[in-house]
Design brief:
- The structure holds 2 protein chains of 2 kinds.
- Chain A is of the alpha+beta class.
- Chain A has 3 domains: 88 residues, Butyryl-Coa Dehydrogenase, subunit A, domain 1 (Orthogonal Bundle); 107 residues, Beta Barrel (Butyryl-CoA Dehydrogenase, subunit A, domain 2), CATH 2.40.110.10; 135 residues, Butyryl-CoA Dehydrogenase, subunit A, domain 3 (Up-down Bundle), CATH 1.20.140.
- In chain A, the strands form 2 sheets. In chain A, strands 1-4-5-8 form a 4-stranded mixed sheet.
- In chain A, strand 2 and strand 3 form a beta hairpin.
- In chain A, helix 7 runs antiparallel to helix 8.
- By secondary structure, chain B is an alpha+beta fold.
- In chain B, a hairpin with an 8-residue loop joins strand 6 and strand 7.
- In chain B, helix 4 packs across helix 7 and helix 9 runs antiparallel to helix 10.
- At the A-B interface, helix 7, helix 8 and helix 11 of A face helix 7, strand 9, helix 8, helix 9 and helix 11 of B.
């Protein structure tokens, strides 16, 4: 057991820190701390420029193999990079869906031609991606997807509706889970398709959220088309690919976010000291609890990372999503309680909220998206603890 | 960076588990807890003389194995899992560290080899009858007498204090001198004027005693280390003890989780194993999150105990706060999931539940340690 980073890892950290500090001091200073959940559409065009700069400088998709434009960085280096990225208050990533979800999926399940076509434009931030999974009747029950895709003279024709799609209005491409065999049992008739977003068969309608923003959209497919070879994995074998993507979503790409959380907690602690809330014994207890919880979150991540380096993604990794989501939701409430009366007052009309207000409200989504807390508990119970599955109605899809 | 046990550390843990499965079986625990001493002399002898667990964190120059607190924590985790009834914690995780941290060369040379080889037992008498951890040593006063000292007063809640052959006693100066903290004294159990009384404990697996000292005369060599060094010695000794206890808590919590999972898979109601109901499944998932997170906290604390004096106070407070709550919650849910059978004397759930409570309170509960963390945060 050794919690120290090696001299090589420390020098890698220094390299990342120097690079980010230099860039954020100069022309990109206005982007500091912007973007990310609850602030996703802010300064969008400038952030595209930022991401292109990252790609050119070799600091996008660093975990990917070099041949696809990555850096071949080790897991430890990726964690160091994400940590430094958040610590530097660099802007929320736009390419994270391509980098964190689609890229690893193509590397694991795609064809060589698909990798060569789709990976380099993600690194260069020339193509943004969105995820077409959830539907009005397929939320936690994802396998109940109803959006249909049919092969007609060498093209997939897609009809149906997706919902809760982040960045849909900005994305160039969508990876969508579609039903391609309505007669098969519901997990066995799905395919994982890559669909261009800018075509007349697709209509994107933003959803107004409780925080006043519209990060999420509804996406309507009405005869939308994509080429026959834009299917990842086998036709009707999309469920396995989609589950692979979800594993990436719950895995390495979330390990660095804790430094962003730390910035938020530091801000709340500073507020409690300045407005007197720190005198309240119950708030002191909750602030200490938040600090302990955050440290434990980092320790959990480091332990998972070490086990992954030993070649295992073990059951311990399954606690990450429910842990951080629940902690962050509690932090949002704590922020408001520390602010007291001031928690009600926003920044501007119409409904321009402060960053802590946005965090408080958006954190309600944290425990829902990417597998709600209830689904996480089912996953832990059934896959980590081996408990029997809930009896389900096994009726077919379609 | 490698935040996991090495192969050697895993091997040590497996050895401990193998040994304790038979040495501290359910029947063994129940037999030991029913005795006046509270432990099985034979198991204690084997722990020290055969397995060398008593020597793990003691330097080689004092007859120890010269390993460290990570190794000690690995073994403590297994002892918690097996609910071992033993003077190990009081002797190795408390008293030995007091001598190691605060003792003179002579004191270390006298006591540590005996502890390392398992030939003696020791305990730490710290609390006044009020039981408050912010008043350590206030139950006993000392005055200079001749070239030595005389101690009078009461020290209570002494873990395994009724059987220990050596006692590390915290005492305060009789004459009120502002700002003077406690000093520590090494007292042999057969010293005239010392009377010991076992206390009836709710957690029968960890015995406690009350010590009455009446004009106990000690030579100057009984003072542990230099005069007035008690405060800083105690701070580190208590931090190390909390780290060891946190490991024990993790082991106990994991055993409660394992028992509960096993029961939920086999107990059938409404024609289904109860573990197929989400009401039970979700409890077990939450318990798993608590156990694994507590493990992270405990390993971190063990690592700082071995490698970072600077981080230890924060890590010890964090681990004690987190693992105390985790163990209690998991042990409580273990009873709930077992239903009626979990409420019976025959089932082990109550033994773990009671140990969870006694170790939550020991050295201060979670709220006490969150207050420590709050001060460290500058709040």
């Amino acid at each position: 057991m050794d919690l120290r980073f090696s001299p090589e890892e420390e020098s890698f950290r220094q390299e990342v820190r120097t690079f980010l500090t230099d860039r954020l001091r100069g022309e990109f200073a206005e982007l500091s701390g912007r973007g990310g959940p609850g602030d996703e559409h802010e300064l969008f065009e400038r952030r595209v420029v930022w991401e292109r700069m990252l790609g050119q400088a070799g600091w996008a998709c660093i975990g990917w193999p070099k041949e696809y434009g990555g850096r071949g960085a080790s897991l430890t280096e990726q964690v160091i990079f994400y940590e430094e990225y958040a610590r530097a208050r660099a802007p929320g990533r736009l390419g994270h869906i391509g980098e964190g979800l689609l890229g690893p999926t193509l590397i694991a399940f795609g064809t060589e031609a698909q990798r060569r076509r789709f990976l380099p434009p993600i690194v260069r931030c020339e193509e943004l991606w969105c995820q077409g999974y959830s539907e009005p009747n397929a939320g936690s029950d994802l396998a109940n997807v109803q959006t249909r895709a049919e092969l007609v003279s060498g093209e997939w024709i897609i009809t149906g509706q997706k919902v809760w799609t982040s960045l849909a209005a900005r994305a160039d491409w969508c990876f969508a889970l579609c039903r391609t065999d309505p007669a098969a049992p519901k997990h066995k008739g799905l395919s994982y398709l890559l669909v261009p977003m800018r075509q007349k068969g697709i209509d994107v309608r933003p959803i107004a959220q409780m925080n006043g923003g519209s990060e999420f959209s509804e996406v309507f497919f009405d005869g939308a088309r994509t080429a026959a070879d834009n299917v990842v994995g086998e036709i009707n074998g999309g469920w396995r690919v989609a589950m692979g993507t979800l594993a990436f979503e719950r895995g390495a790409s979330t390990l660095g976010q804790q430094f962003g959380f730390e910035n938020e907690l530091d801000q709340i602690v500073a507020l409690a000291k300045s407005n007197g809330a720190a005198q309240d014994p119950i708030l002191r207890d909750r602030l200490a609890q938040a600090r302990i919880g955050l440290t434990v979150m980092r320790l959990n991540a480091l332990r998972t990372l070490s086990l992954m380096q030993d070649g295992e993604l073990r059951r311990e990794a399954m606690i990450a999503k429910i842990y951080w989501a629940t902690w962050h939701r509690d932090l949002g409430k704590l922020a408001m309680d520390v602010l007291g009366a001031a928690s009600e007052i926003g920044e501007s009309e119409p409904y321009g909220l402060t960053s802590l207000q946005r965090m408080f409200l958006f954190a309600r989504a944290d425990t829902i998206y990417a597998g709600s807390n209830q689904i996480q508990r089912n996953i832990i119970a059934e896959r980590a603890l081996g408990l029997p599955p809930e009896p389900r109605s096994g009726k077919g899809g379609g | 960076m490698h935040f996991a046990f090495t192969e050697e550390q895993e091997e040590l843990r497996r050895n401990a588990r193998r040994f304790l499965e038979t040495a501290s079986s359910t029947a063994g625990v129940r037999a030991a807890m029913a005795t006046a001493s509270g432990y099985d002399e034979n198991v204690w002898n084997r722990l020290g003389q055969e397995l060398g667990f008593t020597s793990l964190a003691i330097p080689e120059s004092y007859g120890g194995a010269g390993l460290g607190f990570v190794e000690l924590s690995a073994v403590m985790e297994e002892m918690g899992r097996a609910l071992l009834c033993s003077p190990f914690f009081a002797t190795v995780c408390l008293a030995a560290n007091a001598v190691l941290v605060g003792g003179t060369e002579e004191q270390k040379a006298e006591l540590l080899p005996a502890i390392a080889s398992g030939r003696t037992t020791a305990a730490a008498a710290l609390l006044p009858p009020s039981g408050r951890w912010d008043a350590v040593g206030s139950g006993v006063v000392y005055v200079p007498r001749g070239s030595g000292y005389e101690l009078t007063g009461t020290s209570s809640f002494v873990i395994d204090g009724h059987t220990a052959r050596w006692l590390v006693v915290a005492a305060r100066p009789a004459a009120e001198v502002a700002g003077r903290g406690p000093s520590l004294f090494l007292v042999s159990a057969d010293t005239p004027g010392l009377r010991r009384r076992p206390l009836p404990t709710m957690d029968m697996t960890r015995k406690q005693a009350e010590l009455k000292l009446h004009e106990v005369e000690l030579p100057s060599s009984a003072l542990l280390g230099a005069a007035d060094s008690g405060e800083s010695t105690l701070a580190r000794v208590l931090d190390l003890a909390k780290v060891a206890l946190a490991a024990e808590q993790v082991g106990g919590a994991e055993h409660c989780l394992d028992m509960s999972v096993e029961y939920a898979k086999t107990r059938v109601q409404f024609g289904r194993p109860i573990g197929s109901f989400q009401a039970i499944k979700h409890k077990l998932a939450d318990m798993f999150v608590l156990v694994e997170s507590a493990r992270s906290a405990s390993y971190y604390a063990a690592w700082t105990a071995a490698h970072s004096d600077e981080e230890l106070p924060a890590a010890a407070a964090l681990a004690k706060a987190y693992c105390s709550e985790a163990y209690f919650k998991v042990a409580a849910e273990c009873i709930q999931i077992h239903g009626g059978v979990g409420f019976t004397w025959e089932h082990d759930a109550h033994l773990f539940f009671k140990r969870a409570k006694s170790s939550e309170i020991l050295f201060g509960d979670a709220a006490y340690h969150r207050a420590v963390v709050a001060r460290q945060m500058g709040l």
